[in-house]
Q: What sequence folds into this?
């Protein structure tokens, strides 16, 4: 694909983001309520979405722009000992589920990122978190995939192309940080 085509597809996706603005605002409201109630965020995903998970968890724990208190967020994608031991001894399909069982509490909010909406390890972990009673959001592409009928709430980036969906996801994640700074920042 030419640079011009990739940019055009990126712009088309971003021009459609207002279609999901209400969903993103609903997510921000639930994240703010989760922090206010003493809950935490748990992120997970594969490949580029694993990178997005740790990127966003860091924004909350450390800082985005404003000076504010540290906010509790964990990426389930970062502990190489857990990831390798679980995948080696059990299965990669339950690598996030096991961590959900260990770390997730009923007042937490879980965000599973999957551009296809079909990653087995994300689906399994969301089902486990629902059993615990946590609110579960899936960030997907416009089809929603299997997660469409499983997650409690969805952010469906308006594209069918993995890269464009990931670009929309990180924009949404940054805006979420922006909104938490506005609500919780002191600067
Ligand atoms: O970053 C990319 C492609 O842009 C890849 O690493 C991509 O994230 C991986 O193929 C993932 O395994 C795709 O999983 P998912 O988004 O369908 O859940
Ligand atoms: Zn990528």
A:
């Amino acid at each position: 694909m030419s640079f011009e085509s990739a940019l055009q597809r990126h712009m088309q996706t971003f021009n459609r983001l207002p279609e999901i603005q209400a969903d993103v605002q609903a997510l921000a409201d639930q994240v703010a309520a989760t922090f206010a109630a003493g809950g935490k965020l748990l992120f997970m995903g594969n490949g580029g979405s694993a990178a997005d998970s740790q990127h966003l968890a860091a924004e909350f724990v450390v800082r985005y722009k404003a000076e504010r208190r540290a906010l509790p967020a964990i990426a389930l994608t970062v502990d190489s000992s857990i990831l390798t031991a679980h995948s080696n001894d059990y299965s990669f399909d339950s690598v996030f589920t096991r961590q959900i069982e260990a770390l997730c509490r009923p007042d937490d909010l879980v965000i599973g990122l999957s551009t296809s909406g079909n990653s087995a390890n994300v689906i399994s972990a969301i089902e486990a978190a629902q059993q615990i009673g946590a609110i579960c959001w899936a960030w997907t592409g416009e089809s929603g995939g299997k997660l469409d009928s499983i997650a409690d709430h969805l952010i469906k980036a308006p594209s069918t192309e993995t890269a464009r969906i990931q670009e929309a996801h990180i924009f949404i994640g940054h805006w979420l940080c922006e909104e938490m700074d506005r609500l919780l920042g002191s600067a």
User: Anything to note?
Assistant: The CA atoms of residues 111 and 137 lie 5 Å apart. The mean pLDDT is 97.
